[in-house]
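**Backbone shape codes:**
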Amino acid sequence: MKSVLNILQQQFGRIQIEEIRFFNDPNDPERAHDLRVSIRTLRGLCKFLKHQIPPASFTIIDQDLSAAAQIFGQLREMDVLIEKISQYAYEHPVENPSYQHLFATFYQQRQQQMEISLKPTTRQQLDENLLKVKKQLDQLHFETTADWQKLITREMKQRQKKINKAFLQLDLTDYPQVHRI
């Protein structure tokens, strides 16, 4: 069985792989998506283990992973918008010069966001964020005697309560909110 620390380090390794893939092919919308997902997955794992991680370490990990994911947030937003409008245009095939203008505008904005994410200063900021996370992960130690079953059960119950409460207040037409839940 893998240790908790090994799982966290393995997920950090996935971030490094997805970072390489993104910078090798930043034009592929899946690259930004996969990089953000790998970052958010590690962040989610750490949030799940929040009470097992020293508070100072958790804060650094959480803030730096959040900052790293935000670097690609606007780029991913443009990819989602392009995908949605493409789907709409496909399902509603009418000759409309507005489609061409809309696509041209979105692709131009995507290009601008991609260029921002490829700037050396942005790449340096990403690398600094990830280096801070790596240093914190390397310092973590988890008790092997912890009752992980009990901890996982408690955490899942807390999350279920939170999700149920959010779902009751959810507007299903609010895509960002639905996605967040």
The chain is about 80% helix and 0% strand.
